[in-house]
Amino acid sequence: SLSASTNALVQDNVVQGDTDMPSRIIARDGSANVTVTGNSVSDTIVNLQQAGGADNVNFVLGPNTTIPTAAIGDVSLLNTWLAQHTGTSVVEPAVYAPPPAVVEPTSYIPSTGGVEPGVVDLTGSALDAATQDVITKAVSNFFTLHHDWAIL
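^ that's the sequence the OP posted. Answer follows.
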């Protein structure tokens, strides 16, 4: 998507969506002098004019090729394109998995305001958002795995 872009050329791209998620080229929000041509796309190229928004000035839609959407996990079109463009490689993004947060009992700050000392007030500001999230997920998992229990 190009937003408020000036003098942009979108050319020679392969933009293929999956069967469950379309993928398209969009010019929007007052872009000027945008040309979209010579691309292979599986969905519509959009010159988006939003109500109350700035018009796109001098939008040029040249000839583009329509390609089919891919089944989830189908990279055959990508592999074909790579074979035709030697010297180009695909770098897979690293999958970031943050380490699980460790909540130590010594890190609990006794709550004030009517909650007995040593009890953690999950709604209070004494715990940071990440710690609150970890505790909430743990409680949710506990009750999901022990669905015959009830909260009174």
